[in-house]
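Lecture 7 notes: from sequence to structure.

We start with a single chain of 584 residues. Read the sequence below before looking at the structure.
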Amino acid sequence: MKTLILLEIRSKVPHKSATQTMVSLKRSMTTRARSALPQFRVRVPATVVDSLRVLLYLSERAGPPFAKVVKIGETVEFSLGTTDSVVPAARQDDALDHLRRLFDLTATIPVQLSHRDMVALSGETYRLYIKANEENPGEPMAWRMHKALHRAVVEGRIANPPPATLSADDATAATDLFGSGDLTAAVNALPAGQHDGLEDRFGLLADWVLIRSRLNLTTDDRRRFLQLVGTASLDASWQLRRNSEGDYSPDPKAARFPAMETVTAGQPRQTITGLFDLWWTEAKALGRSQSTHDGYKNGIDRLVEFLEHDDAKRITADDALRFKDHCLKTVTPKTFRDADLPGLKSVFGWGLTNRKIAANTFATVTIKREKKIVVRSPGFTDEEAAAIFRHCLAYQHKPKENAKTAAAKRWGPLIAAYTSCRIAEALQLRKADVFEESGYSVMRFTPEAGSIKTGIYRLVPIHSHLIDLGFLIFVDESSDGPLFATGSYKRVFDFVRGVVTDPNVQPNHGWRHRLKTVARNLGLDPRVVDAIQGHAARTASDGYGDVSVVAMALVMDKILRYRSSTRKMPGPRKQPRRESVSER
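Now the structure, written as tokens:
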């Protein structure tokens, strides 16, 4: 997922010392009156910039192509363009990243580049044009007009051209300048070398490249770079015209640009966010889960916001300790101890090992684990289990509620009750994850559907009570894909918390503790119960052989049915039989 911000600076931005910290950007996502579209909003101190024109382009990896020109003053505000549940947050994060790059750039000193380096940089413009348009390039005539404007500006034949914004959408301006006849003849008829429209035409594109590379050019080098960007844009427009005519053969001119890796002027600084991205590339390849990425990323974002800069090499041991003190006031000790701190140690440790930074400033940061006060069993009581079942079975789909959200509230806790899965595992089940295996109906918990703590898939037989309650019918009538609404975890949490109000038991995790207790009462095989729950083998010998679906089904059959009335937890049968919270 990548956002491209192209900026044309319309006011003088004072250069600041290289030691000055990055401006703190206070961001929010809201909606405007009479609009359901989320809005990006970030406050920018007026001491940093006075006024900028910004073209924001998000690639298709963050939803459909999205471009918008916005102004930067005391705030940056624009519509995120969609009500999708995921895309606005991605666009907001990436837009913020680019704004941070811009404001970092205001603290740099202008540099001079070799001709070779500037040609390499201009190649980024060529590749951007192609990437943005080659899948659906549009009409050939639009690209003829677009490149006619490019050539006229590069050759100094016109003044005040419209800015190039990656799209061939300036046909009206081209027609006004060149008429509707032969474009080549019309451009050639204008005298060359009479006007300088390079900044107006190609300034946005040039600034995008420089901001991505964190480079601030001298005035003379910028003039030369604009000329190169114009030539690269013209080459790209030729290729896109051929694409629009059905010709996708390779463009020989694409190979004329030196590799970006040869440009060293913009590479001395290692960003914190960039270090995280490098760490994740390797961690993902080694099987780390998306939930680990998300948890660690939250800590990285908090660190950057706290430091008010994004330079990994500037962090000191004192900064690390100050950040710990800050977090203990702003997040829970558990969040810092179990998520933020392990993430920072891993990312910065990776950076040290891979020679991206000189020291891991978080290596010696510690936090004591508080002594946990236990006032009750972490598993649900008989009364709580019965209350949850009543609550789920009685739930009715609300008029404006998403049907898959309602389904999550009804079925999520019931699945967890009999499989003792983590509730997130239940809520990411897909229709394809329910099928028959070895003569039993099973559900598959797999990393392909979402986060699995162990990273290992497992099959779990479906309890007969779930089948009798209509779970298989619900699955059969569901559309392909996820059975439940994305992001319904918090809604299910709140739904169960409505009847299990004791803060000393987790509304969903209580099922995992309860099943262990039930299994011990019934004398069930611990290794099979562990396999059902997704727990690792406890000993080396437990790791030998497989726990089959048949073995799990035999155990599952001994787990008595829950009822919505309050009865005692199941245990060994005696004569006369003791009543329990469930029955066959």
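The CA atoms of residues 124 and 373 lie 58 Å apart. Keep this in mind for problem set 3.
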